[in-house]
């Protein structure tokens, strides 16, 4: 029995198909018509009570089944009308008599109005809405997927929740795609009803004239009643299904059932109801209008709106402070402070447990705080794209550098001005900026021919003189040579540059273990040999941190580990000599390093005079942590001044500034100038591939006065 019930839908569809072939008695046709109407009403009520379309995901299939059922009934009723002298059951007879009321022309006109209303208004509208919904859902899928990835990487949702949300997005896309096709079935059903009506009336009249001896008036009356009745019992369920179709495809932004949404949203606008009542009252001034009816409606609207306004004012007001937006990972500091103040006793009781105090000690790796005006950039509910841009940056940085940026905590802060933002690394502010969301940032070119009106500022990521300009001045600014950037790109660029500069601070021991485990999947023997022998996680962390600090990708873990093993075991390099290990690894990664600073087969560099380098070698001193460069202050000052002058030559180039030294001096010279020029890269000759042409565009020398002192 259970097995039969599991195939009930299949049996029902097969029965419907048989309706197209096997003649049915009139009594069974009446039962089928009543079932069809009941089923259509049930579907319409269901679409009005669900909260979201996916709760009724079988609707596209039901649409096909009900249409097939209706067509089967049409075939049976048409067969009965043509073969039984216009008789096809009591339901059709009752509907025909009720609508026609003895007037064939009026009955046919009413029937045609119902059919055309369904075909032109409801069916056509539902078809268009389904088509647009399907297209927009497909277009929005990548953005929704990135939003899920952002929430997952930020720790707002678990892997299981992310999987559930992805499945829901896929089901929504499939549902609206199916609805786009299913609405074509409804449209075809409306066309078919017109054809069936014409066949019943014209074909039945011809058969009656030929086969029966009745008068033409009697024949037309009989078949017109049957035709209109048959059309109505078919079109009323069809109209209900068409309405249900339009209902379900227009429920995209609903929060509850249709009844709940209408009640909630209309009752939230009492003044609109009262204004409508006043307008209805004004209509009584028009001569000939029914004053009593207008007065009753007007009084009802005004009194109802007044009652609702009094009830809304009497309800306790909830004040949202700080704008905490959990969906966009924003946490309102002001809101949390107010909540703490309003529940002071509860909070005091909470922190009596010393274990709860430890929850206040956590420090986020990366934080970004916003002023109130910048919140929409991160709020996805109003079209903010900051989170999706961060996801793209994290993925690109992982591909380029081999290191995954940890989750970035976004929050709004009442301590900042409305247009300001702050970037924090491990709880401390490292950068700050200001964004005008209604303007564009125009970066000034080197040879500025003509200025454009705007608010002068400095581009936060690179310190380029800029202007905030109005959107309508964008094209003019580009004609003047300015580089125009939208506010979101300014914000993301600043954030990405800050993260790149401080990435070496974010590579924790836990992240080291993750990177090792990831490498172990590909090279288990290498990892086993390295970490069961001379290499510790602490040493590996020091090496990777140093490489990241100088902008060297750590993606090629196998080469890094192999070079470390070779340097320690074969050459006898002491484990404590981390600098020596790093220089060996940089030499092994020379193709990667060369690619970073090479353009069209050549690398533009600043070289170092041999006499200056010999002087610097002579100034190496040994301390507790190894050798360090102890230069004469005058020599150091001269070097800083010369580097500043030479760096100007890189301003028009896309390549980062590079200073070329010997391998012995590289790390010491880098540490010397890093405090003055953190973005300058210091390379040795051993780190450059042989097939690259080195082009010196500047030279650092030991000046004459310094030569005498040295």
Automatic annotation (TrEMBL):
<dbReference type="InterPro" id="IPR006301">
    <property type="entry name" value="FlhA"/>
</dbReference>
<dbReference type="InterPro" id="IPR042196">
    <property type="entry name" value="FHIPEP_4"/>
</dbReference>
<feature type="transmembrane region" description="Helical">
    <location>
        <begin position="191"/>
        <end position="212"/>
    </location>
</feature>
<keyword id="KW-0969">Cilium</keyword>
<dbReference type="InterPro" id="IPR001712">
    <property type="entry name" value="T3SS_FHIPEP"/>
</dbReference>
<feature type="transmembrane region" description="Helical">
    <location>
        <begin position="102"/>
        <end position="122"/>
    </location>
</feature>
<keyword id="KW-0813">Transport</keyword>
<feature type="transmembrane region" description="Helical">
    <location>
        <begin position="266"/>
        <end position="286"/>
    </location>
</feature>
<dbReference type="GO" id="GO:0005886">
    <property type="term" value="C:plasma membrane"/>
</dbReference>
<feature type="transmembrane region" description="Helical">
    <location>
        <begin position="232"/>
        <end position="254"/>
    </location>
</feature>
<feature type="transmembrane region" description="Helical">
    <location>
        <begin position="32"/>
        <end position="50"/>
    </location>
</feature>
<feature type="transmembrane region" description="Helical">
    <location>
        <begin position="7"/>
        <end position="26"/>
    </location>
</feature>
<keyword id="KW-0966">Cell projection</keyword>
<dbReference type="GO" id="GO:0009306">
    <property type="term" value="P:protein secretion"/>
</dbReference>
<comment type="function">
    <text>Required for formation of the rod structure of the flagellar apparatus. Together with FliI and FliH, may constitute the export apparatus of flagellin.</text>
</comment>
<feature type="transmembrane region" description="Helical">
    <location>
        <begin position="62"/>
        <end position="82"/>
    </location>
</feature>
<keyword id="KW-0812">Transmembrane</keyword>
<dbReference type="InterPro" id="IPR042193">
    <property type="entry name" value="FHIPEP_3"/>
</dbReference>
<keyword id="KW-0282">Flagellum</keyword>
<keyword id="KW-1003">Cell membrane</keyword>
<keyword id="KW-1006">Bacterial flagellum protein export</keyword>
<dbReference type="InterPro" id="IPR042194">
    <property type="entry name" value="FHIPEP_1"/>
</dbReference>
<keyword id="KW-1133">Transmembrane helix</keyword>
<protein>
    <recommendedName>
        <fullName>Flagellar biosynthesis protein FlhA</fullName>
    </recommendedName>
</protein>
<dbReference type="Pfam" id="PF00771">
    <property type="entry name" value="FHIPEP"/>
</dbReference>
<keyword id="KW-0653">Protein transport</keyword>
<dbReference type="GO" id="GO:0044780">
    <property type="term" value="P:bacterial-type flagellum assembly"/>
</dbReference>
<keyword id="KW-1005">Bacterial flagellum biogenesis</keyword>
<comment type="similarity">
    <text>Belongs to the FHIPEP (flagella/HR/invasion proteins export pore) family.</text>
</comment>
<keyword id="KW-0472">Membrane</keyword>
